[in-house]
Amino acid sequence: MTIHIDAAPGDIAETVLLPGDPYRAKWAAEHFLSDVRQVNAVRGMLGFTGFWQGHRVTFQGSGMGMPSLSIYVNELIRTYDAQTLIRIGSCGAMQSHVGLRDVILAMTATTLSSPSASIFRDVNFAPCADWSLLRAAAAAAESHDVPTHVGGIYSSDTFYDERPDLNEQMVRHGILGVEMEAAELYTLAARYGRRALAVLTVSDHLETGEALHHDLRERSFSDMVEIALEAAFAE
Ligand SMILES: O=P(O)(O)O[C@H]1O[C@H](CO)[C@@H](O)[C@H]1O
Ligand SMILES: O=c1cc[nH]c(=O)[nH]1
């Protein structure tokens, strides 16, 4: 048990999929896992452990933003010894060739700040995905009928952004989409020698202003979840 996760030792699988939304964790666990058990409800940040094709998996909500994700990922790694951590999140598209509901595999995650920024001082650390997971996710995506893009994303501290100039620089440098957690996930995975990846579904488009209803963000991103599961257990 930790301060934020009520699971007993052994209740959390080595492979943890992390949606920001705890109700996406509930939907995904009910939809994709068998023999499912709820393992966390502290602060409503739901977690579930079950089996996907014989493999033990935990879906654990991580909340919104890097400070929240940092709490869950620190506890999942340091107390529960999680080895593979895959974020399954929504994001805003930043390029015109990226469409609503497309999948993005985040090779790198640029950020202005993160809970880890202070330990790097003057260094601009480059948070990046685990190569074996990224390669496996790209291969898995080929058998899904969903346009998939691999490249850099931007992990922002704000959803309601007041710095359009920053977004302009991201767009100019080919950043595919914006979300709020991956950079800290990649940094913590690097620190503790774990595997991490962010598989994202485009829920908003910064250029067109399109935005999916919250019900769809919670319960419709099946391709993203399947790609993450297939990557996690690829041979
Ligand atoms: O859908 P999730 O996984 O929460 O991810 C995105 O959605 C939230 C903002 O609506 C932020 O957490 C952002 O990163
Ligand atoms: O951080 C996020 C997440 C989803 N959509 C956005 O536009 N931003």
From TrEMBL:
Q: Where is this site: Important for catalytic activity?
A: 217
Identify its protein family. Belongs to the PNP/UDP phosphorylase family.
The protein, known as? Purine nucleoside phosphorylase DeoD-type
Q: Enumerate the UniProt keywords alphabetically.
A: Glycosyltransferase, Transferase
Reaction(s) catalysed by this chain, per the record, are: uridine + phosphate = alpha-D-ribose 1-phosphate + uracil; a purine D-ribonucleoside + phosphate = a purine nucleobase + alpha-D-ribose 1-phosphate; a purine 2'-deoxy-D-ribonucleoside + phosphate = a purine nucleobase + 2-deoxy-alpha-D-ribose 1-phosphate
Lineage, top-rank taxon, reads: Bacteria
Gene name in the database record: deoD
Question: Is the Glycosyltransferase keyword given for this protein?
Answer: yes
InterPro entries membership:
DeoD-type (IPR004402), Nucleoside_phosphorylase_CS (IPR018016), Nucleoside_phosphorylase_d (IPR000845), Nucleoside_phosphorylase_sf (IPR035994)
Single GO molecular-function term? purine-nucleoside phosphorylase activity
Q: Which residues bind a purine D-ribonucleoside?
A: 4, 179-181, 203-204
UniProt domain Nucleoside phosphorylase: residue ranges: 16-228
Q: What does this protein do?
A: Catalyzes the reversible phosphorolytic breakdown of the N-glycosidic bond in the beta-(deoxy)ribonucleoside molecules, with the formation of the corresponding free purine bases and pentose-1-phosphate.
User: Where, by residue number, does phosphate bind?
Assistant: 20, 24, 43, 87-90
Q: How does it assemble?
A: Homohexamer; trimer of homodimers.
Instruction: Give the residues annotated as active site.
Output: 204
Enzyme Commission numbers on file: 2.4.2.1
